Amino acid sequence: MDAKSSLALAVVDEDDEFQEQQQQYLIFRLGAESYALGLLSVKEIIEYGGVTQVPMMPPFVRGVINLRGRVVPVIDLAQRLYGEKAAVTRRTCIVIVEVGTGEERLDMGVIVDAVSQVVEILPDAIEPGPSFGARLRADYIAGMGKQDDGFVIMLDIERILLTEEMVSLGELTNATA
Questions:
Q1: 23-74: per-residue pLDDT in tens?
Q2: CA 46 to CA 55: how far, in whole Å?
Q3: Residue 131: which domain range?
């Protein structure tokens, strides 16, 4: 095999790996519902704790955490989506996600009730989200993933976290860093 062929093979392998990662989702619970986040946006999952409250923040901002020397805002996802503060239990976790575009990337933590598993959801098993009747805004739903006998709500975490309200959190992070 010549160098050109091996380079082409390496690029194909990377593309296959990227495609496989794009189809993997982290399944978690908020209340009685199951949700999914694309695994490519998830950086890590940590135990809930060490959240420092910041005065004069919107109600869905629980505060900030120190993540290896970096200030990371923590969002109460239940509060953000439904206006209901999440109850903290022993299974409560903070999922660290990376959001933003281009070089403007920001790590944020989202509080979830429990993390279940990582699953692969193929594109042909994804239906469009409902245009009405859902408890949350339709533009926050990336799709409905078929799983067993039901659906998992696939969230568009970029859209949920990157709004005008959230831009101020980026400024908060930069100011306290």
A1: 899 999 998 899 999 999 999 999 999 999 999 888 899 999 999 999 999 9
A2: 24
A3: 3-176
β-strands 104-112, 93-101: how paired? antiparallel
Identify which of 125, 132, 114, 113 has the alpha carbon closest to the alpha carbon of residue 152.
Answer: 125
Q: Are 99 and 157 in contact (CB under 8 A)?
A: yes
Query: In terms of pTM, does the model score above 0.85?
Result: no
Q: Into how many domains does the chain fold?
A: 1
Give the number of other Cβ atoms within 10 Å of residue 121's Cβ.
Answer: 20
Q: In angstroms, rounded to a whole number, what is the distance separating the alpha carbons of residues 61 and 155? A: 18
Provide the CATH number for the domain around residue 151.
2.40.50.180
Cα(145)–Cα(7) distance, integer angstroms: 35
Closest CA to 153 of 162, 140, 165: 140
The CA distance from 161 to 176, in Å, is: 19
Give the 3-state DSSP-derived string for 36-78, with helices as H, strands as E and coil as C.
EEEHHHEEEEEECCCCECCCCCCCCEEEEEEECCEEEEEEEHH
